[in-house]
Amino acid sequence: MATPAEKLAETTEGPALVGVFMNLTLYGVMISQSVFYYTNYPKDPTWIKAYVALLVTADTLNAVFICVWIYRVLINNFGNQAALGIGDWLFETEQALTGIISFQVQMFYAWRIWKLVGNRWLVAVVAITATIGGLSGIGTAIAIGIRPEFLGLIHLKSIIICWLLGEGISDIIITVVLTWYLRRHLGGYSKTDGIVTKVMHLIVSNGALTATFAIGDLICYFATDEAYHLIFNFPLCKLYGNSVMSTLNARAIFMTSSKDAASAYQSDPPIRFNQSGRPDITGILATSVDKTRANQTQIMVNVETHEMSDIQGQEHNPDDIKAGMVV
Known about the structure:
Layout: H1 4-11, H2 13-40, H3 46-76, H4 89-116, H5 120-146, H6 157-184, H7 190-223, H8 230-233, H9 236-249, H10 251-254, H11 291-307, H12 318-322
Keywords: Membrane, Transmembrane, Transmembrane helix
Protein name: DUF6534 domain-containing protein
InterPro entries: DUF6534
């Protein structure tokens, strides 16, 4: 039969350790996506590059702090029951940084909604819920500093509800608005509609994943006095960072780019057309000077040109061009 100390470790540090493993796994994905971004989008605006750097820095600090915390509890205080189920300042940074990162990510999506839809009310709702969630995350960290016992977290219902519910609602609103906007711009062309559909799937999967973890964290928090909610809580900030990076990097897959890798975030990016009125897509896949790969690229460009020949001579809606900002 398990001793009280073993039972406490299983219900507090056990779920926390699982959450730390998930956090670090997603941190590795975040680093890979960041390297991919800086390598492939050197002409993005400086503020977006700085934004990505800020996200990576916050994610790095979060990973370092929770690793040091779990090491101190399980290694430095091995056999010390008094150290179990207690959150010190390192543990508190997890809630604070999750609130800060989720706020950064959701405000970025609010900016995109403003650029695409131009509805200030939708932007205001996203901004308000994101602010409530972010500030409540910081407030939760402060409250844990006042009452650090894990078993005491059940007494922080009000602020934790504001934190996790605010984040979840904001994620749902962002997903619904962007998906609705893209569905409005389905133009009946199989090529472009296929790309738009893939973008919608990406948006829904990202928004659903972060919202599910936030709501799952809240449900586990209310369902039991034990710390199983940490399994959902610890990976949450990494999910937010990866959601932004996946949409930024999706341009390499979904969006047709020119040879000079023009940014999809430049205002009103021009689309060039050749003399026959077809979109000029030469150089879409040209990434190497290797002769063999160059020949393969030429073949694929010809196929693209043939498939898009049905739009020759038709007008191009400026809204369809602006839709490129979604990814």
